[in-house]
Amino acid sequence: MLQATTDLNIDEPLTVPNYFANVRSDNNTVLGVVGKDYHIVQNRDAFAFFDAIVGGEDGILYETAGALGNGERIFITAKLPDYIRVGNGDDVTEKYIFLTTFHDGSGSITAAFTPVRIVCQNTLNASLKNMTNVVRIKHTSGANQRLENAHKVMGLANTLSNQLENIFNEWATVRIKDDEVKKLIQLALCPNKETYGLLKKGAEDELSTAYKNMVEDAFCLCNGK
To answer: Which terminus of the chain faces fewer neighbouring Cβ atoms within 10 Å, N or C?
Structure first.
């Protein structure tokens, strides 16, 4: 009989062949269980490629950095010196390069361009959904060497952002109806599975009052009310 439990009632440690636990050296917290081909990339090594460009003549500066959970997920962002401007007003979007990596075996080292300033799990998720010019590096042998080449994404970021600026300004000339704006807001509010299902089948009358109020409040803000 199989049993899912953390209480094995054994005197000796249980060894699982070809699997290893990633453990923090400062407090012995287990961050995750990985396979035999997993190669540890220390935080200082993952972030090293930022050091070559931050604070230089290009004006790229460190912006944010953090650890999520028990430290199994980390991120760092660097802010580019200019921004994307839409129209002739004050509607601007900052530009960032970010890197995130997992120590629990659930993902690769990822570096990319994003317009989102990362400060928490939610903004990291938003960046991962909106990232471009992506470099992904698996935690395998040779990861450090490939990471040294990840700075190439930096040179691509400004070129891409100039293209985005042209696209955004073209979009700014397109007029959309209030109902269409509300549909965009509904999806942007990250609905749960049940709400998303109702939106997909057009059953807006069945949406919760709280969710409808959030959509309406966001819509009023978009219209400056």
So the answer is: N
